[in-house]
Each structure stands twice: as structure tokens, then as C-alpha cells.
Amino acid sequence: MDIKKAIAVISGGASGLGNAVAKRVVDEGGNAVLLDVNEEQGKAAAEALGPAAIFVRTDVSNEAEVNAAVDQAVETFGGVTMCVNCAGILGAGRVLGKEGPMEGDYFARVIMVNLVGSFLLSKACANAMQHNEPNEEGERGVIVNTASVAAFEGQVGQCAYSASKAGVAGMALPMAREFARIGVRVNTVAPGIFLTPMMEGMPEHIQDSLAAQVPFPSRLGRPDEFADLVAYLYGAVMLNAETIRQDGAIRMQPK
Description:
Layout: E1 7-11, H1 16-28, E2 31-36, H2 39-49, E3 53-57, H3 63-77, E4 82-85, E5 96-97, E6 100-101, H4 104-129, E7 141-146, H5 159-179, E8 184-191, H6 197-200, H7 204-212, H8 223-235, E9 243-246
Parallel strand pairs: 1-2, 1-4, 2-3, 4-7, 7-8, 8-9
Antiparallel strand pairs: 5-6
Helix pairs in contact: 1-8, 3-4, 4-5
């Protein structure tokens, strides 16, 4: 797939990793549809990218909103060729916390946003992609989901988050196998510790401490590096159903 012709639908596109992907797509000559719940930030992000981008306020856990957003992408740019799921919430908390056991609704909310949200957008985009004309390789689209190293080494207090991200990683193979018939690839990126807006809000000494845990390079990942990998996955036709750790070789400790 040629990123210069990409029509990308990106959840969490108003900031952080999602916004870095949107910038990369637009810089390369493609179009980007930014989905986010932060309307003010989303509108500003799309405006900064120019006419090649639009913003659609979307709660990814709401199926009707997700479907409407993808419909708007098709109406505005003529289709969808790239889907990138970056929307997510941390959902930090112990199963047995100081205030008592974790509420089931809290756990379910994390699953709904991180896992079900990724499923809903992937499904809606794949439905649009199947109507694209295939390229010379028979491809019609690419889906990239965002998991986390927490999917494999969840720390204390990450039960809900880790479960949601493990589910995201687990979707890649069955989706890729099913979507093979329509020429749509599905891959997953599992980032380590990246310098996102959430991380930037932490005290500098905490950022430094986290960076020191990364073997090499001993620093936090940059959103543009995540975007580089997504762009590569979009064009690498033989990469399908893969989960790629982008983490500087970090292996998270229990806490």
C-alpha cells in the first residue's frame, strides 16, 4: 500500500501516538480522519493539518458513533484504506485496593474503550475497505492496532489495562485470517514507554526514572517513531497478523 494515497481513520487522533500517525499520513500526501472524544483538541489538530484532514468526535466504545465516523470518512475522501486504533484509557487500579475490590463496571469500561473500541473501528473500516479496488498485490487496506508491553508483562495495578491490551494483540491473527479474502492485513504494535501527553504531565524525575529502565536507547519513545513503524507496516505486504514490540528491549517489572 502507498501511504501517499492513504485514507486513514485514526482513533485517538487528537494527540499523542494517533496524532503523530495523522501528521505522517498528511505529510506524505494522504488524508486523515481524526477520531477522538476531546472535541476542542480534535478540531485544533485537524485544522493544523489542513484540508487533508477532518475531525469527527467519536467515542470508540459507541458502535453507532464509530460507524457514523467511518461513513463520514468515506463520504469526505471516497473510502478508507488505513485504520489505526490509538484510542485508549489506562484504567489503573488494584483488583483489591485500599478502598475495596475493583468495581466490575470500572474493569468493563477499560475493556470497552481499549478492546471493544478497537474491534468496532477495525470492523467498520474493514467493511469499507472491502469495496476498494485492489492494488497489484490484491490489497484493499491495512489495519494497525495498538496494544502495549503491558499485554505481556502487566504490572500490579494494570489488571484491566493489561487484559484489554492482551485482547487487542489476540485479535490480529483471527482478523487477518478472515480478512485475507478481502485483501486487508491486520497488525499490532505493542509500544513500551512513550512520551505521550499523559507522560509529559508527570514530574521530570519520574520520566527520567522510567527512561532509565529502557535498556537501549535509554529514553522514552517518541510518537514520531511510532508513526514511522505504522507507516512501514502499511507498505510491508508480507507483514500480516504480527505483533511488534517497540520498546527498546524493556521488560516491565512487577511494580
